[in-house]
């Protein structure tokens, strides 16, 4: 080795008599710092002017993924803080590393045994207390995959540096949607293009029931999209965008258009929330959801009777009683959603045959306006022959004008019971009306199994299918559909029927805007290890909804129970407190975050989005809208008046 192979020490050091030379004569710490050109940042543009909070730990490896930081004694560098480090490159330019504090630890150097702690406390043993933080790097600017310089200073990322750390500078103008506040109460953003389908779509929210606030966060996300300037601007003010919420656990979602009685400055929680809303959207007094339609199932009644909504948390006169007429049930092919176990095999086949035959036999009832139909043999019906495939028969129903048939030309159907009885007579060979064209050649055992399932479902769906009922129409910006009072089979039917209609409108390009669908308990509707028509529909929405404008915001307590084709298509993943047994499903989180998700506080969520390569914990504020009945009415007098009003209706 020659003298030229050694780096310059910055000092003119003479060789000794034997020819050896001390390359870097370190007499003071200043010598090391003065010769470390990578950490000589004077004159570089963009170096933070604030005090540093630490130094990149020189005793451990600093990589392009992580690094340890010796925290300065003068500050408290907490978990989840965004930081920036800088170094001088060989060409004289500056390279910034942006990261998030993912772990913080501390100890006393010099302590080897537990009992040394007492000796340090008694000042009988020397030692040096220190705190160390682990940083997960998110980004470098410019994009150069180099490790940070050991010993380089680190600062809290503020202003431009925080925008770079969160990739806000990479988001198109006006598309940044606040999705919560970081642990220092500063907004975290999601580019709308990763939610609306342009570059990604869908959101998946996981967490324990009751403490993980899955539904609350879904509501918050909708609020940011529809009720804030950020959301309206990102959506380009499209008045045709719609949100569809299914209230599956209670009537809580049915009062989101009412002001929250705790959202005021005299309430500790309300006052804190006002500060957080101001940090998020610039106002301390946001209003409740402004354009909401609430739908509740119609109470059981005779066909043709006036539909009355079954709801107890709001005025029934402001609530639409939903259901389906026999005509809607048959022409929309809703028979397949009556069952959840017919996805394959002969039962599925006979269901398809019966569904088609019902459509071919259906005819409007003359003079009726409540959705009654006449079931008449298609060979005896007037006009052109009815096609024998579902698509063509459905098109025939929609496009060919039909005058109503009189009641005497067939069986007048007014309820689900009429349909079930008619079908049973056609498919069971013990009936005088048995018709082989209705069974598709399947065995009578299969026909009997099919009819048994129909009989089993009829009591659970009877109230929803009768003459005089009308289905859900998404006329308001946000539509809440209450299904919690229904049997599980009926809930599944309602969710599937409504979602199928929305999906059909988007497939046929008759929906002018995007539809955001919020569905809790996704594992019930799209279970991983079984098949059903509604699961197939949800998987299709997850796969093609991005291009067709249907955005799924799904929530589940157990992500392991949801079909992976749905969760894997979500661009935004959100996790609240979750069971340890479900942690293995959170592959997008590093091990430390997965462990933390098991103990995270209620109301805190961990978000993961495509633009940021590291998960970011966030909090979201207490809402200005009521999320349950008790938050709407402030006093007992109000409650009594409400009960009196409902009793009198």
UniProtKB/TrEMBL annotation:
It comes from the Bacteria. Gene3D superfamilies: P-loop containing nucleotide triphosphate hydrolases (3.40.50.300). Residues 1-21 are annotated as: Disordered. This is ATP-binding protein.
């Amino acid at each position: 080795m020659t003298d030229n192979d050694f780096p310059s020490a910055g000092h003119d050091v003479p060789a000794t008599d034997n020819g050896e030379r001390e390359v870097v004569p370190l007499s003071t710490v200043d010598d090391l710092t003065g010769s470390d050109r990578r950490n000589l940042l004077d004159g570089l543009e963009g170096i933070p002017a604030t005090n540093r909070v630490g130094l990149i730990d020189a005793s451990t490896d600093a990589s392009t993924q992580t690094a340890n930081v010796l925290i300065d004694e003068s500050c408290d560098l907490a978990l989840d803080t965004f930081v920036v480090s800088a170094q001088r490159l060989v060409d004289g330019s500056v390279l910034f590393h942006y990261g998030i504090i993912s772990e913080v630890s501390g100890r006393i150097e010099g302590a080897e045994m537990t009992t040394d702690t007492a000796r340090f406390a008694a000042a009988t043993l020397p030692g040096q207390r220190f705190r160390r933080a682990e940083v997960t790097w998110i980004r470098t600017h410019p994009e150069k995959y180099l490790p940070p310089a050991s010993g380089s200073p680190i600062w809290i990322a503020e202003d431009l540096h925080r925008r770079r750390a969160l990739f806000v500078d990479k988001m198109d103008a006006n598309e940044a949607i606040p999705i919560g506040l970081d642990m220092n109460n500063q907004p975290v953003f999601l580019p709308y293009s990763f939610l609306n389908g342009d570059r990604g779509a869908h959101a998946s929210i996981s967490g324990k029931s009751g403490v993980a606030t899955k539904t609350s966060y879904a509501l918050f996300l909708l609020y940011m999209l529809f009720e804030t300037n950020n959301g309206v601007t990102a959506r380009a003010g499209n008045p045709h965008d719609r949100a569809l919420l299914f209230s599956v656990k209670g009537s809580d979602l049915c009062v989101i258009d009412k002001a929250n009685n705790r959202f005021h400055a005299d309430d500790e929680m309300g006052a804190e929330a006002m500060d957080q809303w101001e940090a998020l959207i610039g106002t301390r007094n946001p209003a409740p959801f402004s354009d909401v339609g609430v739908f509740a199932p119609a109470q059981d009644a005779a066909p043709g009777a006036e539909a009355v909504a079954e709801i107890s948390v709001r005025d029934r006169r402001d609530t639409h009683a939903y259901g389906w007429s026999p005509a809607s049930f048959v022409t929309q092919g809703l028979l397949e959603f009556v069952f959840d176990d017919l996805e394959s095999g002969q039962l599925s086949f006979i269901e398809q045959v019966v569904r088609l035959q019902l459509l071919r036999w259906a005819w409007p009832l003359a003079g009726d306006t409540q959705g009654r139909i006449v079931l008449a043999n298609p060979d005896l019906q007037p006009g052109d022959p009815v096609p024998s495939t579902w698509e063509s028969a459905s098109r025939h129903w929609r496009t060919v004008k039909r005058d109503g048939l009189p009641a005497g030309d067939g069986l007048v159907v007014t309820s689900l019971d009429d349909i079930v009885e008619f079908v049973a007579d056609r498919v069971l060979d013990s009936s005088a009306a048995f018709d082989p064209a209705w069974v598709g050649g399947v065995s009578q055992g299969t026909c009997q199994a099919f009819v048994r399932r129909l009989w089993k479902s009829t009591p659970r769906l009877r109230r929803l299918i009768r003459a005089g009922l009308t289905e859900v129409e998404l006329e308001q910006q946000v539509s809440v559909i209450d299904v919690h009072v229904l049997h599980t089979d009926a809930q599944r039917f309602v969710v599937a029927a409504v979602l199928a209609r929305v999906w059909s409108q988007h497939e046929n390009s008759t929906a002018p805007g995007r539809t955001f669908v919020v569905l809790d308990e996704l594992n019930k509707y799209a279970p991983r290890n079984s098949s059903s028509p509604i699961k197939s529909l949800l998987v299709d929405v997850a796969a093609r909804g991005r291009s067709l404008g249907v955005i799924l915001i799904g929530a589940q307590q157990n992500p392991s129970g949801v079909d992976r084709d749905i969760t894997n298509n979500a661009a935004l993943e959100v996790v609240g407190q979750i069971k340890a047994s479900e942690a293995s499903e959170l592959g997008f989180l590093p091990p430390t975050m997965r462990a933390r998700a098991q103990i995270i506080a209620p109301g805190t969520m961990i978000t993961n989005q495509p633009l940021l390569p590291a998960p970011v914990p966030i909090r979201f504020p207490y809402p200005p809208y009521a999320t349950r009945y008790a938050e709407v009415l402030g006093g007992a007098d109000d409650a009594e008046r409400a009960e009196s009003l409902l009793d009198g209706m």
